[in-house]
Write a structure and sequence with these properties.
Strands 1-4-3-2-5-6 form a six-stranded mixed beta sheet, with helices on one face. Helix content is 44%, strand content 16%. A hairpin with a 5-residue loop joins strand 5 and strand 6. It has eight helices and six strands; from the N terminus they run αααβαβαβαβαββα. The N and C termini lie far apart (83 Å). The chain has 206 residues and is of the alpha/beta class. The radius of gyration is 23 Å and the shape is globular. It has a single domain, classed as Glutaredoxin (3-Layer(aba) Sandwich). Pfam families: AhpC-TSA (PF00578). This is Thioredoxin domain-containing protein. InterPro entries: AhpC/TSA, Thioredoxin-like_sf, Thioredoxin_domain, Thioredoxin_ResA/DsbE_sf. GO terms for molecular function: antioxidant activity; oxidoreductase activity.
Length: 206
């Protein structure tokens, strides 16, 4: 009797396990977030936070000055002299980036005359073969950024701690010290920085 009971329990366990396995197997794998570059997906966003703790260094400034300008003024020494500097990484296919540009437009219009500069670095534009010059131009036509747009590369990404998600945004004070670092959260809880936080940080620095 005990043997039959044990066999019955084992059968129930096996059936339950088989059902769980087949259910899991039928579920499609989760797609990687669109904001993550596959070749660098193993890099934690906190690496950028750690690497940029020294602030806006001379090598970082030098690289930003060499990047091709897509829109706005050329980046030069005056861009950084006694200025609060916002650097953000974006791509035209990134919907949260478009929302962030709305915030940055307001920040620029309100605080540029008080010493705030914004540099938007176009990066990951070629994610999953999505590169499209016409789409990028349309994005800029729609968002109408009054600040400088430059074409990024892996060098500037590495200098900012290896950017792996967009948007990724940094704010540096007038001495070049990092005051804020934001990146699109992997869990989707906060894809873009909220305007109130960004404005509060800017106001404490000008």
């Amino acid at each position: 009797m005990r043997t039959k009971f044990s066999i019955g329990i084992a059968a129930v366990v096996l059936i339950a396990a088989f059902g769980w396995f087949t259910t899991r197997a039928a579920q499609p794998p989760e797609a990687p977030p669109l904001q993550m570059k596959p070749a660098q997906s193993a890099t934690s966003p906190t690496k950028a936070q750690t690497a940029a703790q020294t602030g806006l260094t001379q090598p970082m400034k030098a690289t930003l000055k060499t990047l091709p300008v897509l829109m706005g003024d050329r980046v030069d020494d005056q861009t950084f002299t006694d200025k609060v500097v916002v650097v953000t990484f974006f791509a035209s296919w990134c919907q949260p980036c478009r929302e962030e540009f709305g915030h940055l437009n307001q920040i620029y219009q309100a605080y540029h005359d008080r010493g705030v500069e914004i540099i938007a670095v176009n990066y990951f534009e070629d994610f999953d073969n999505l590169s499209d010059d016409a789409r990028l131009q349309k994005y800029l036509d729609i968002t109408k950024p009054p600040f400088t747009i430059v074409k990024g590369n892996d060098t500037v990404s590495q200098q900012f701690g290896t950017v792996t998600r967009i948007p990724t945004l940094f704010v540096f004070d007038k001495q070049g010290k990092r005051a804020l670092h934001f990146f699109n959260k992997p869990d989707g809880s906060q894809p873009t920085i909220d305007m109130a936080t960004l404005q509060q940080v800017i106001m404490t620095l000008i």
